[in-house]
Amino acid sequence: MLISTEELSGSVTKVVLDGRLDIAGAQAIDLRMNVIAGSHRAVLVDMQKVSFIGSMGLRAIVAPARAIKSRGGKIVLFAPNGMVESVLKASAIDTMIPIHHELQSAMAALQ
Amino acid sequence: MNRNGANTIEELLTLQSKLSEIALIPAWIEQLASRHGIPKHTQFAMDVCLEEVLSNIIRHGYAGAPDHTILVRCTIPRKDYLTLIVDDEAPPFNPLLSQDFPSPRSLDRTSAGGRGILLLKQFADTVNYELKPKGNRLTISFTAPEKSNAV
Q1: Banded model confidence at residue B115, pLDDT cuts 50, 70, 90
Q2: How many domains does chain B have?
Q3: Span A2-109: which CATH code?
Q4: Is B119 close to A65, i.e. CB distance below 8 A?
Q5: Residue to substitute from B48, B56, B98, interface A, most A β-carbons within 10 A
Q6: Where are chain A's structural domains?
Q7: pLDDT value at position B114?
Q8: What is the ipTM of this complex?
Q9: Which of B52, B103, B110 minimises the CB distance to A55?
Q10: Best label site of A106, B36, B85, B150, fewest CB within 10 Å?
Q11: A71 φ/ψ angles, rounded to the nearest 5 degrees
């Protein structure tokens, strides 16, 4: 699992995840996600290249999302594929962290 | 690969009780898929279920001890039905008796982790537990798309 960041307009930080969010993938991004959560208030998690997510991967997203929200910030999940989205919905993560498939709506949700 | 008397296809994977061994699962599923024509969404469901079951066995059942064995068998008795049978020799534990993960009300009131059993139940069509003389057996089944409740 690879993680990279990019600053977008409106002080939005895009976090790009690439690979499997399994146990190993979750460990690979944990520290960086928590650092981002502690220092940014508008985060778009680009999940287009996430091919798999398990419960440890969910944890690696929920924990930083809680931190961002506790600091008054916002986070969205952007464009997970159908099967990854099915995991997010099965675990009701989508009811707590919005999923957007259009960049414009994702950016609007972070303002 | 074996075919038993009823012409059921059976494939076996033996894993050591190390979390790193779970990395073997995606490739194994791919091999099964290419040999037996398993649909993509079923492969994904198998992947999700095995990730959860195996990590629980390794981390909790065997308490992280790396010198144990876990057997994963895939049986395909007919084209539209597939079963994963996971055998361990860990202390008795039935994951199906775990308390259901509470419905989250909000991000600040939900736990970060603990959704593994929830995913197992959501992505398998059926999950059955059996206590063996020495260890545990989980049988996880998946049916064809038109009959399946799994995603």
Answers
A1: confident
A2: 1
A3: 3.30.750.24
A4: no
A5: B48
A6: 2-109
A7: 73
A8: 0.93
A9: B52
A10: B36
A11: -95, 10
